Amino acid sequence: MGMEKTVFGTTKNGEEVSLYVLRNCHGMKVKVSSLGAAVVSVEMRDFSGERRDVVLGYDKVSDYEANGSFFGVVVGRNANRIENAQFELEGKTYHIPQNEGKNNLHSGPDSYAFRLWECVRESEDSVSFHLNSPDGDQGYPGNLSMTVTYTLTNENELKIHYEGEADQTTIVNMTNHTYFNLNGHNCGSVRRHWVRLMASGFTPVKDEGAIPTGEVLNVEGTPMDFTKGKIIGEELGADYTQLHLVKGYDHNFVIDGWDGTLRKIAEAEGEQSGITMKVYSDLPGVQFYTGNSLEGVKGKNGMTYRDNSGFCLETQYYPNAVNEKEFPSPVLKKGEKYNTTTVYQFGVR
Description:
It contains 2 helices and 29 strands. By secondary structure, it is mainly β. The longest helix is centred in the N-terminal third of the chain and has 6 residues, at about 60-65.
């Protein structure tokens, strides 16, 4: 048990980046960085007792400063996509940066993913990072005060708690963008992983821009059906338009029975390691992404990642929700508290 703090490196501006190492009584170890409030590694023992690091990442601060794949980071003020990089709030139209074609992805090139967060609390089992985002930052209204806390429990849970407040009505939709490979980050494709999603609906996308059509479709009878659990690669190459558009799975799944309470939304297992992961969230959606654009990315320990080297389960409000009246709203009213939790619980089969 316990936490240690080390120097990870320095940014191109000469600012020191800290690395916080959390351990529990089972020997599980989690490293998080003050740059991007990023999960840098999650180490645990597999069924044979061998230690494996089950998240993709980098060795150097400079790579996290670039981080086109968003490895491990906290994404905000709004995760995922906003169509035409604009939205209306309380009668006013806001324009935000276009950084994926004409759309906005993960709040643009100045995402919280690339910022140095301030450590405001540390304890034996947790670390809290704080960020002040001023009015007009990334094009959003309101001064936002945001804190993200990582806690490692003796139940092998990595808990991520987000809390924030703004002085104007704004959008807040935070997520964590960790890529998992439960066999180990250096073990190749996750196509043989087993995954189950507690989601009998998904939001289909219009085109390669991955903006939802506004509908919610039933997954039954389609390659999008993970309700009973299946191998990721089983239908990854199916002749299905939604898969062709985004080169695999990169879709928002609609959590069954969502009511704002914490519930199990997904589970996964690595076929080589026997390492399992259960995901809990109080949010209405989860982006299941199979790392379709990782080809050639140079990762940690000299590893070169390939397409499908990792998968993400990004808990969230649906993509483009601010522009879709029927979707659960990511709008945070002035004075309201943003308060949401995601839990990744690890085990061995």
